[in-house]
Design brief:
- The protein is mostly helical.
- It has 2 domains: about 1-60, no CATH class; about 65-105, no CATH class.
- The protein is about 50% helix and about 5% strand.
- The protein contains 6 helices and 2 strands; from the N terminus they run ααααααββ.
- The protein has a two-stranded antiparallel ribbon.
- The radius of gyration is 28 Å and the shape is elongated.
- The two termini are about 40 Å apart.
- GO terms for molecular function: ammonium channel activity.
């Protein structure tokens, strides 16, 4: 959108073989045409996207069922997990206890120290 409006401001007669931009003595005419074209294209894109979204929602829908979301999309849609068992997610040992502790307001009692990465002679945080 910025580029479309900048044409209305910075266009030269050599560039467009005709109308000049506002900064080169062309007045508001070219800037107005560029702004109108930008609004028309944005409205067209919105309308087409909205109609397509309605068609998708009516035919197959955007959302999964609540049960599928809770149990995990990878498991329900692809019959596999995204991560190896025990690494991350609903299969991780102790994950439910940890999440339950957070829900009860428990937090860590210590602050972890930042780790340094070494590249050559300099250390980066």
């Amino acid at each position: 959108m910025v580029g479309v409006l900048l044409i209305g401001l910075l266009a030269t007669a050599v560039m467009t073989q005709g109308p000049k931009g506002l900064f080169y003595g062309g007045g508001l005419g070219q800037l107005g045409k560029q702004a109108l074209a930008m609004v028309v294209v944005a409205l067209y894109a919105f309308a087409v996207s909205y109609v397509l979204a309605l068609l998708i929602e009516r035919s197959m829908g955007f959302r999964l069922s609540r049960e599928d979301e809770v149990s995990g999309v990878d498991l329900t849609q692809h019959a596999e997990t995204a991560y190896p068992e025990g690494v991350y997610g609903h299969q991780a040992p102790g994950a439910r206890r940890w999440a339950a502790g957070l829900a009860r307001g428990r937090t860590r009692t210590t602050t972890p120290e930042p780790r340094l990465r070494y590249r050559g002679r300099r250390a980066f945080r």
